[in-house]
């Protein structure tokens, strides 16, 4: 059956050709209905586990915030507050919003920012989101960084209750983004940038088996989402993080299909998706880092359910690596300079994969399992499709990867596939 459509859902032909990306801006409209400035800023979204020594990502954020004059506001409300941290008094073992805020502020200064300050908002200080003094502090910043933790804590600390409207502080950050500031985040700090149906938790197998539900659940395996969404800085697709490291491709595909989204930006660890002109017709993206970012395209996908369970056909997997660019409006990829189309040279079969989503129940599982099979298929001449399965059964799901016409792989070494464009994905129970 066709995917359910959200209002305004777009459907574009899948292009796999390179293009020159336009870098001019156009007015955008925010959730509040107010038009954005034509100076629209940028996003730097990291899939989690951002390493202290990742100078390229920290440097990108600082450069976009003004370089040597950058002033970074650090928000860590996704962390537990001091009142819930038993080690709050120990600077060596603490892990709470204030402690983590100081940690990131120090990192940004060490990487070259002129100043970096913790913005004191968390579950212990929700009122600060409406404080004129904190608003003034935020107004003095040229860029912002949202740390990791639980994205739902950002919802409860920076949005106003059931109305889901901006607090004073969030309204200022939104305005500054529209006027040219950079907004960055890692893990939960990247997921909160999403618009409607932001993911709140869940595992791939349980998501495929049981589907998604609106809400936030104590059961960490249950696939949940928030219909009202996060902050809505990036609305051209859903956002997921830690994708390959936690095997989240399955949950991302199921959530998008259930909620009528035709795109997911599936981010990987220690790697950034840099978004220029978010929310405009000129929205473009670039990947920076050692891993990558997947674009899951459901614009032609179809779902079905029978006695065995849920199935999906016609989804496409595009995997972008360092330096690759992506035009979100036209679904077109410009591989990084130095990459060339891959001509498969190997004749060996794709290795068997019986845990495609890296199940937490499998003590012998391997991260990046989905990506590993996709790349192995791209690099061999022996077969045009490969089948992987979930570790769990009842039902066991198969994932079929197929090199259909239009699929391309790009390489820097002539033998291995780094960038993948338009690999067909089907999921079915058995």
From TrEMBL:
Signal listed as a keyword: yes
The signal peptide here is 1-31
Under the heading CDD domains, the entry gives: GAT1_cyanophycinase (cd03145)
Asked if the record carries the keyword rRNA processing, the reply is no
Q: Which Gene3D superfamilies match?
A: 3.40.50.880
User: Keywords on this record?
Assistant: Hydrolase, Protease, Serine protease, Signal
Lineage, top-rank taxon, reads Bacteria
Q: Which SUPFAM superfamilies match?
A: Class I glutamine amidotransferase-like (SSF52317)
Family (UniProt): Belongs to the peptidase S51 family.
> Could you identify this protein by its name?
Type 1 glutamine amidotransferase-like domain-containing protein
């Amino acid at each position: 059956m066709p995917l359910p459509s959200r209002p305004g859902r777009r459907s574009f032909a899948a292009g796999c050709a390179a293009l020159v990306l336009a870098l001019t801006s156009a007015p955008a409209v925010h959730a509040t209905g107010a038009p954005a400035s034509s100076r629209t800023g940028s996003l730097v979204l990291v899939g989690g586990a951002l390493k202290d020594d990742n100078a390229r990502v920290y440097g990108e954020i600082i450069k976009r915030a003004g370089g040597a004059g950058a002033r970074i506001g650090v928000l860590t409300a996704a962390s537990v507050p001091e009142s819930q941290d038993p080690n709050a008094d120990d600077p060596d073992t603490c892990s709470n919003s204030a402690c983590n805020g100081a940690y990131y502020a120090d990192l940004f200064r060490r990487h070259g920012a002129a100043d970096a300050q913790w913005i004191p908002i968390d579950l212990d200080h929700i009122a600060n989101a409406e404080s004129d003094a904190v608003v003034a502090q935020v107004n003095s910043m040229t860029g912002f960084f949202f740390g990791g933790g639980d994205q739902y804590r950002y919802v409860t600390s920076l949005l106003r209750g059931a109305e889901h409207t901006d607090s004073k502080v969030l309204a200022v950050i939104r305005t500054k983004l529209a006027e040219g500031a950079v907004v960055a985040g890692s893990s939960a700090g990247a997921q909160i940038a999403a618009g409607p149906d932001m993911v709140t938790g869940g595992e791939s197998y349980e998501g495929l088996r049981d589907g998604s539900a609106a809400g936030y659940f104590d059961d960490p395996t249950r696939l949940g989402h928030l219909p009202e969404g996060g902050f809505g800085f990036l609305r051209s697709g859903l956002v997921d993080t830690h994708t390959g490291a936690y095997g989240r491709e399955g949950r991302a595909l199921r959530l998008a299909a259930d909620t009528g989204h035709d795109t997911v930006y599936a981010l990987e660890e220690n790697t950034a998706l840099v978004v220029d002109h978010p929310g405009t017709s000129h929205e473009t993206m670039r990947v920076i880092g050692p891993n990558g970012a997947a674009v899951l395209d459901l614009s032609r996908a179809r779902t079905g359910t029978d006695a065995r369970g849920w199935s999906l056909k016609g989804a496409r997997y595009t995997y972008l690596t360092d330096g690759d660019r992506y035009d979100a409006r036209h679904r077109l990829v410009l591989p990084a300079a130095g990459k060339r189309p891959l001509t498969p040279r190997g004749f060996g079969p794709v290795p068997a994969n019986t845990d495609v989503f890296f199940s937490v129940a499998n003590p012998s599982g391997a991260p990046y399992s989905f990506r590993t099979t996709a790349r192995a298929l791209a690099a061999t001449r022996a077969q045009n499709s490969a089948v992987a399965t979930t570790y769990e059964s009842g039902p066991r799901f198969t994932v079929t990867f197929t090199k259909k016409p239009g699929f391309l792989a790009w390489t820097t070494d002539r033998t291995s596939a780094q960038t993948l464009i338009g690999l067909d994905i089907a999921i079915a129970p058995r």
